[in-house]
Design goal:
Radius of gyration: 17 Å
Largest sheet: 5 strands, mixed
CATH superfamily of one domain: Ribonuclease H-like superfamily/Ribonuclease H
CATH topology of one domain: Nucleotidyltransferase, domain 5
Strand content: 15-25%
Structural class: alpha/beta
Helix content: 25-40%
Order of helices and strands: EEHEHHEEHHH
Distance between the termini: 50 Å
Shape: globular
CATH architecture of one domain: 2-Layer Sandwich
CATH class of one domain: Alpha Beta
Length: 199
């Protein structure tokens, strides 16, 4: 069972990101503040849910949260400041956009930069422990997937509607065949050695 609150503060924001390991597209973060009696039968870490479940959850979270926000950090910025700092930046930007000021922040993972004067705690596998982080993971994932599916229409060779920019064999093969786009992260290892191994 996921827990509703970590800190005891009423306005506790959970935050998480999606797309850190991708070769293309933005990293997307969400921040969510949930009400005291929030519950949902299958809310969990977005990676444990089917795409259909995530799509069902998104409007439920958006309608029932006290506040939520989603932020995109684009590939150019990722190349400039690295993926870890971009993930944290996206989380900060999402918290910035919340309609309520968070009293406490809980973060999925073990890395975070302090946000203003608000206390925070990093929680490894937090998206499978706390509802607000799980809700943030669902929003971040669904918004990012939706964006990559739209992008697929302009760049069908890379099959982003399926792989969402992650380093699948097919994605790497498309990069070796067609080259890279403006949406690819130039500082990432876009090709594995095996892509060139024709023997």
């Amino acid at each position: 069972m996921l827990q509703l609150n970590y800190s005891g503060f009423t306005l506790e924001a959970g935050t998480d990101e999606a797309g850190r390991g991708c070769l293309a597209g933005p990293v997307v973060a969400a921040a969510v503040i949930l009400p005291k009696k929030f519950k949902h039968s299958f809310l969990n870490d977005s990676k444990q849910l089917t795409e259909k479940q995530r799509v069902q959850l998104r409007p439920f979270i958006e309608e029932n949260a006290l506040a939520y926000a989603v932020s995109f950090v684009w590939q150019d910025k990722i190349d400039e400041i690295n993926i870890l700092q971009s993930s944290i930046l996206a989380m900060h930007q999402a918290i910035d956009q919340l309609s309520l000021k968070a009293e406490y922040i809980i973060v999925d993972g073990n890395k975070f930069n302090p946000y203003k004067e608000i206390p925070h705690e990093t929680i490894v596998k937090g998206d499978s422990k706390f509802m607000s982080i799980a809700a943030a993971s669902v929003l971040a994932k669904t918004y990012r997937d939706e964006y990559m599916k739209k992008l697929h229409n302009d760049f069908p060779h890379y099959n982003w509607k399926q792989n969402k920019g992650y380093p699948t064999k097919q994605h790497r093969l498309a990069i070796s065949t067609f080259g890279i786009t403006d949406h690819h992260r130039k500082t990432f290892r876009l090709l594995s050695e095996r892509t060139f191994d024709k023997e």
